[in-house]
Amino acid sequence: MASSTPRSCTPERSLSRGGEACTAADPQYLRGRFAEIAAATEEAIDLGEAAALIGLEDEGGGRVVDVLGALDGLAEDARGAIRCARSPADRLDRLRGIFAEQWGFSGNEGDYYDPANSCLHRVLERRIGIPISLSVVLIEVARRLEIPLRGVGFPTHFLVASPELPGVFIDPFHGGLCLTETECVGLLARLTRGRAPVDARCLQPVSKRYILGRMLNNLKAIYLSRGEYERAIAALDRLLLLSPSAAALQRERGLLRLHVHDYSGAIADFEVCLAGDVAGEGAGEIEALISAASRRLTLRH
Length: 301
Known about the structure:
By secondary structure, the protein is of the alpha+beta class.
C-alpha cells in the first residue's frame, strides 16, 4: 500500500473549468462559476469543483484550484496500491483502507453541526466531516482512479455505492465501513429510533445535482438554527440556482428577506411565487406578504 504523504496543489498550478482558470478567490467569481455549473447538464457537472465552490463561498473566498489539487494529490497517493488490486472488490477495499486508516478521514461526531464539516476544502484540511462531504471526497478521489462510485441519498446519513458491487454500501463517516442492505435498514432504525419508514428508493444512487442541493440544505439548516439569516439566504440563493422553479424555496427566501428587512428582495421573491402555479389560499397568502413588504418599504422611504 502506498505510504507517501498526499501532495497539495502548488500556488502556480491552474486547472481550467468552463474556459476559465480556477484560481480566483473573489466571491463574485465563486458565485458566478457555481451558477454556470448549476445551469449545466448532469453529465457536465464536476461534483468536486461545485462542492468546492459551495464551501469557499461560504467561508468568504479561496482558490478552487487548491481544492481540486488536493483531490488530485490524494488520488496520486493511492494510485500505486489501487493499480495492484486483483478485482473491483479488492480495489474498493484498498481505497477504503487508505481513506480511513492512512489518510485518517472520519466523521466529526464531536461537533457534527460545525459548518466547516460541509465545506470541502475544510474537510480536506482537517480530515473530518459529515457523511455527505466525506462521501464527496471518496467519490471524487475514486473518479480520478477510474473507480466508479455513486452517492446514495440515504435519510439522515449519506452513503456511497459501487455499481460494480451491487448490494454493497460504504459509510465514509464510520471509517469507510461496508454495509449490506439489511445493515443499512438497521442503521436507519438506530439513527431515527424507528421513526423513518424504509423505502427501496433510499438506497438508489442520486444525481450530482441532488448531492449539491443536500449540501446546501445542510448549511441552510445550520444557519437558520443559529439565527444567521444572511448566510441562510446565501445558501438559498444557490439552491435556487440548482432549482430555479422551486416555489417553496422562493417563498422561503422571501420570508427570510422580510426578516432581515430586505423588502425589495422579498417582494421580488413573492412576485415570482405569484407568477407560478399558486392558487386559492396560497395566492392570497403571497399577495398579503407582498402588501406587507410594500407597506414597510414605503415607510422606509
